[in-house]
Design brief:
The complex is a heterodimer of chains A (about 240) and B (about 240). Chain A is α+β, with helices and mostly antiparallel strands. Chain A contains eleven helices and four strands, in the order E-H-E-H-E-E-H-H-H-H-H-H-H-H-H. In chain A, helix 1 packs parallel to helix 3, helix 1 crosses helix 7 and helix 5 crosses helix 11. Chain A starts with a strand and ends with a helix. Chain B has about 240 residues and is an alpha+beta fold. Chain B folds into two domains: about 80 residues, Glutaredoxin; about 160 residues, Glutathione S-transferase Yfyf (Class Pi), Chain A, domain 2. Chain B is built from eleven helices and four strands; from the N terminus they run E-H-E-H-E-E-H-H-H-H-H-H-H-H-H. Chain B has a four-stranded mixed β-sheet with strand order 2-1-3-4. In chain B, a hairpin with a 2-residue loop joins strand 3 and strand 4. The chains are: A alpha+beta (about 240), B alpha+beta (about 240). Chain A: It holds the Pfam family GST_N. Chain A: GO terms for molecular function: glutathione transferase activity. Chain A: InterPro entries: Glutathione-S-Trfase_C-like, Glutathione-S-Trfase_C_sf, Glutathione_S-Trfase, Glutathione_S-Trfase_N, GST_C, GST_C_Theta, GST_N_Theta, GST_Theta. Chain A: It catalyses: RX + glutathione = an S-substituted glutathione + a halide anion + H(+). Chain A: It is found in: Cytoplasm.
């Protein structure tokens, strides 16, 4: 039994893993875990990740959670090209810096906007109040500004002249609010250029394929979700808001 | 000009870096940033890190933010003992796994105990928001349960028999609620034992020195807080209570 990656491509960190593994021709078995159907809460999946989250990895008897940890594990095990996680001390630190910062910034704000805009109305039957949307958008705008000014600056990629894990992780997260209808690249030419470069670096076709489901997320209806989840999501989202 | 570390020991990530550097005899200049003394005092750190936060590292022309990045940089540059960030691929993955999970779990709630119990009343004059504190403690409880079940289990340390960056990052975060009187170790014997082991591994004296400020947090009430900072922070803090 080879490497297994447990993924739902609606999830940003899952997409980063999928794209990274495919782009580097890492052989793996794609184990689909549909979050909307509650498949992450099954006993079977719990054996892979007791925290019941995707993505997860199983390599023989070794299991691993957290996309950053999994990406680094794949880098080390499959000896991917240096630029993904540069051996140069300072470049590597730049990648680590972004991967750390993004959790409670780009990822948090991008996710929140997506969940509130797409999932919440689906579950409650009510549209998102405009002031709420504005507030969440502004929060994302603040971290986007920090991303451009501190992490990207005038470089082609975060670590310098070549794409790294940092760019991949950043871009898949930004696609979430984009697919929720917030075209954040429109008025940000520098970011739009960076996006184009990252897509080319991993392969445009692969990038599009990985994002097919999330791009069609507006076609999701409430009956797509397992009923037990609806209540769960409702509680989570209402608490966050 | 050698390695400079911009730190305020009231901050958890600063403590992990301080303890790590001192424990490994890494030579550095301690640049004290007093977070509550306002902009004029943290100008040094402001120039170093565009994010205007601590911790921050300056090594010649190279500047770096983010605790995990700084710890990893130091472990590599100064070739610290392997157990801190093991070369064994699976053990290393366990450290990475914890360091990632930490951000939105333990670190989501532990810091709030200090804000709610000490800083918000101090900055805004508002009384203790006990309902919010309970909410935070419940969230922290859930994270602690997962920490014990998934990360620590029955091992001495997160990766097994030796301490790593994961344990250090976890423990400093959990000292925050302890400092403000929410002793999360009280009813958790397994965690209490782990804490003892971590303290022994880094050196008890160093551990307590690093935690002197947070364990005497009540002294903070006597610190003259920059009025400008108070004004700036008050609305931000009130938001935190919602």
């Amino acid at each position: 039994m080879g490497l297994e990656l447990y993924l739902d491509l609606l999830s940003q960190p899952c997409r980063a893993l999928y794209i990274f593994a495919r782009s580097n021709k890492i052989p793996f078995e794609f184990k689909r875990v549909q979050l909307a159907k509650g498949q992450h809460k099954t006993e079977e999946f719990r054996k892979v990740n007791v925290l019941m989250k995707v993505p997860a990895l199983r390599d023989g008897s070794f299991t691993l959670a957290e996309s950053i940890a999994i990406l680094l594990y794949l880098v080390q095990k499959f000896k991917t090209p240096d630029h993904w996680y540069p051996s140069d001390l300072q470049k590597r630190a730049r990648v680590d810096e972004y991967l750390s910062w993004q959790h409670v910034n780009i990822r948090a704000k991008g996710s929140k906007l997506f969940l509130s805009k797409v999932l919440l109305p689906l579950i409650t039957g009510q549209p998102l109040p405009p002031e709420k949307l504005e507030f969440l958008t502004e929060e994302l705008n603040v971290v986007l500004k920090q991303f451009e000014e501190k992490f990207l600056q005038d470089k082609p990629f975060i670590a310098g002249s070549e794409v790294s894990l940092a760019d991949l992780v950043a871009l898949v997260e930004l696609m979430q609010p984009v697919c929720a209808g917030y075209n954040l690249f429109e008025e940000r030419p520098k970011l739009a250029e960076w996006r184009r470069r990252v897509e080319e670096a991993v392969g445009k076709k692969l990038f599009q394929e990985a994002h097919e489901e999330i791009m069609n997320v507006k076609n999701l209806t409430a009956d797509h979700f397992a009923p037990e989840l609806i209540e769960n999501f409702k509680q989570q989202l209402l608490k966050q808001n | 000009m050698g390695l400079e570390l911009y730190l305020d020991l009231l901050s958890q990530p600063c403590r992990s870096i301080y303890i790590f550097a001192r424990s490994n005899n890494i030579p550095f200049e301690f640049k004290h940033v007093e977070l509550f003394k306002g902009p004029s005092n943290s100008e040094g750190a402001g120039k170093v890190s565009l994010l205007k936060k601590v911790p921050a590292l300056k090594d010649g022309d190279f500047t770096l933010a983010e605790c995990t990045a700084i710890l990893l940089y130091l472990s590599r540059k100064y070739n610290t003992p392997d157990h801190w960030y093991p070369s064994d691929i699976q053990k290393r993955a366990r450290v990475d796994e914890y360091l990632s999970w930490h951000h939105t779990n333990i670190r989501a709630n532990a810091p709030k105990t200090m804000w709610i119990k000490v800083l918000i009343p101090l900055f805004t004059g508002q009384p203790l928001a006990s309902e919010k504190l309970q909410e935070v403690m419940e969230g922290l409880s859930t994270s602690l349960k997962q920490f014990e079940e998934r990360f620590l289990q029955d091992k001495a340390f997160i990766i097994g028999s030796e301490i790593s960056l994961a344990d250090l990052v976890a423990i400093v975060e959990l000292m925050q609620p302890v400092g403000v009187g929410c002793d999360i170790f009280e009813d958790r014997p397994r965690l209490r034992e782990w804490r003892r082991r971590v303290e022994d591994a880094v050196g008890k004296e160093l551990f307590f020195q690093a935690h002197e400020m947070i364990l005497n947090i009540k002294e903070l009430s006597n610190i003259q807080i920059d009025p400008q900072l108070k004004e700036q922070l008050a609305p931000v803090l009130m938001k935190m209570l919602k």
